[in-house]
Design a protein that fits this description.
This protein folds into two domains: 28-112 and 214-248, 3-Layer(aba) Sandwich (D-Maltodextrin-Binding Protein, domain 2), CATH 3.40.190; 116-211, D-Maltodextrin-Binding Protein, domain 2, CATH 3.40.190. The protein has ten helices and 14 strands. It has helices at residues 2-23, 54-65, 80-85, 100-103, 130-135, 147-154, 169-177, 188-198, 222-237, 240-248; strands at 31-36, 39-40, 44-47, 50-52, 69-74, 91-92, 107-108, 113-122, 140-143, 163-166, 183-187, 201-203, 209-213, 216-217. 38% of the residues are buried. The structure holds glutamine. Glutamine (GLN) binds at residues 37, 40, 77, 94-97, 115, 143, 146-147, 169, 187, 211. Residues 37, 40, 77, 94-97, 115, 143, 146-147, 169, 187, 211 line the site of glutamine.
Length: 253
């Protein structure tokens, strides 16, 4: 009953967003508008008044190849796909995992990086691995609409009642620190940054899932998709992508 009502409300919201997006979409020619959620270090985050990170640098390199000017819109993760669908944004790039359900709404480019869904707990929590987390009656914080949210909600061992959703990953981590949730399921690299910044937290040695990150594009924009894939291929071949990733995630040794 509650779920059905939520569905109706969120369908209404999505439709409302689509209408307003079409009504006010004023994109300039030659501009590549990228929607992201810039609270996801090292992929996209705010630094010295600018949005920087792996995704930003790869997007800049693609835009340059396409002879376009990159414009970044910092929005909630959960609204990126709807905004690309309504053509409010040209691309969505936000450490975004390729998923079959998302492919029903948008196309994805070739993958440019891999991610892992990691689990953050308090150092003294007594939760030592993934099984203990799933089997216990723990509350799990996630970032709304992300794969962490989807996996936990759909996992028969966990389910909706144990999932607490936040619009920013950082808010989920703060809730973990203050004891409102017992764990956070989130992408591994941002997890490392959150743990470093917060203290008293640790990442479990067992992960939930491995994923492929890619750029999402409106289903009608097949020409743009092809151009992006061509640019990605070139940037992989000449070592640009590896260098950008190495800059933000230095390999050990
Ligand atoms: N990789 C995750 C997803 O696609 C999380 C992305 C994010 O929070 N920016 O859902």
């Amino acid at each position: 009953m509650k779920k059905a009502l939520m569905k109706i409300i969120s369908a209404g919201l999505v439709m409302g967003m689509m209408v307003s997006a079409t009504a006010c979409s004023k994109k300039k020619a030659g501009q590549l508008v990228m929607a992201t959620n810039a609270y996801f270090e090292p992929y996209e985050y705010h630094q010295d008044g600018k949005i920087v990170g792996i995704d930003v640098e790869i997007a800049e390199a693609i835009a340059k190849k396409l002879d376009m000017e990159l414009k970044i819109e910092d929005v909630e993760f959960d609204s990126i796909i709807a905004g690309v669908q309504s053509k409010k944004y040209d691309i969505g790039m936000a450490g975004m995992t390729v998923r079959p359900d998302r492919l029903e709404s948008v196309n994805f480019s070739d993958s440019y990086a891999t991610g892992i869904q990691a689990v953050i707990v308090k150092e003294d929590s007594g939760i030592t691995d993934l099984d203990a987390l799933l089997e216990g009656d723990y509350k799990i914080g996630v970032q709304q609409g992300t794969t962490g949210d989807i996996y936990m909600t759909e996992d028969p061992m966990v389910g909706d009642a144990r999932v607490v959703r936040f619009t920013k990953g950082n808010d989920a981590v703060l809730a973990l620190s203050s004891g409102k949730v017992d764990a956070v399921v989130i992408d591994n690299e941002p997890a490392k940054h959150f743990v470093e910044a917060t203290g008293g937290l640790t990442i479990l040695p067992t992960f939930y899932a491995e994923e492929e990150y890619a750029i999402c594009v409106n289903k009608e924009d097949t020409e743009l998709l092809e151009k992006i894939n061509k640019a990605l291929r070139e940037l992989k071949e000449d070592g640009t992508i590896a260098a950008i990733i190495e800059k933000y995630i230095p390999s050990e040794g």
